[in-house]
Write a structure and sequence with these properties.
The protein is an all-alpha fold. It has 6 helices and 2 strands; from the N terminus they run H-H-H-H-E-E-H-H.
Length: about 150
Amino acid sequence: MTYEKLYVAYLVYFNRDRDYFECHEVLEELWIAREHDPFYKGLLQIAVGLYHFRNGNVRGGTILLDRAAGKLQDYPLLCLGINLGKLVAEAQEYVRRLESYEAQPFPYYDLTIEIVDEVLAREVEAASPGITPNIPQRRGPQRGRASYHK
């Protein structure tokens, strides 16, 4: 099996760069191309939830991570080459902690999507050098196409 180029780019931006804004950009394009597949929407929302919380928006982070976990929890634990069960459990734990953030604040932390398929791992590794990190990371939409389209 080969994986969608945009999905691979999402994983590079998520795990290597922690660039959740760019994760949203690439996965939204795939989500639209795949007729609004809820799986891609859920992965997109994980990135957006982390983006919001990292930027101080606790409410936005809570809402998006909760929606993402709700969308993804009924998929197989291992899905599309990743350990989805682990990701969903971590998102649910994040939501639980964010819901009591005011009383018990904690520092932001990243999540990592565990790649369990060797083919996907090789594709991510092969694509990584051709995907230029955004330094500094973008904070909003910009014109132009990113390097994952090349």
